[in-house]
Amino acid sequence: MTILKKYRIGAAIVAALGLTTLAAPLMRDASAQDTVAAPELVGKRWFNTPQGKPLTLAARRGKVTVVQFWTFGCSNCRVNLPAYARWQKKFAPQGVEVIGVHTPEADYERDPKNVEKFLREQNITYPIVTDEGSDNWRRWNQQYWPTVYLVDKAGRVRFRHIGELRGDEAQVTRYIERLTKEPAP
């Protein structure tokens, strides 16, 4: 089994973040210290945060963050929503935060009122930033909905999963558990 297959990191992160020179370090075990820093999240409109104030990955140093790119009109994205809610519930006591980046694909998904309505209807309570201009999408060199990134306590991308989680939720959960047990930087 190759290291890339064993840890499901490396080329995926490199491709996602548009990096080529870091390919070798990123193909090491997920506990490697020389991984790439997660790009900061940007956005004017946040849901499910106190007074709609933005969250930053910099302010989350010392804590694990799950960043998930999605859009409410995507059926594949909807399949993953229960997993994100389970992670938020299970790992919140350990300081883990799920942050959704809602990057619209269709015009009706660009309207923040439609996003807010969907969040309310689906009882989504974790923080969501709207990405109407695809700024986060570009910063993270995104290509697919849905995509999940795990950001470690040092603010480094340590894992990426593209697509529906169906058979992979347990594996991603184990990665989150592993990251929560690592010491803070």
Structure summarized in a few sentences:
The protein is an alpha/beta fold and 185 residues long.
- Can you tell me the overall shape? globular
Q: The CATH topology is what?
A: Glutaredoxin
- N-to-C SSE series? HHHEEHEHEHEEH
* Helical content class: 25-40%
Low-confidence stretches: 1-16, 18-32
Number of DSSP strand runs:
6
CATH class group: Alpha Beta
Provide the structure class: alpha/beta
Tell me what you see in this structure.
The chain is 33% helix and 15% strand. Strand 3 (97-102), helix 5 and strand 4 (128-130) form a beta-alpha-beta unit. A six-stranded mixed beta sheet has the order 1-4-3-2-5-6, sandwiched between helices. The chain is globular and about 40 Å long. The protein has a single domain, classed as Glutaredoxin. It has 185 residues and is an alpha/beta fold.
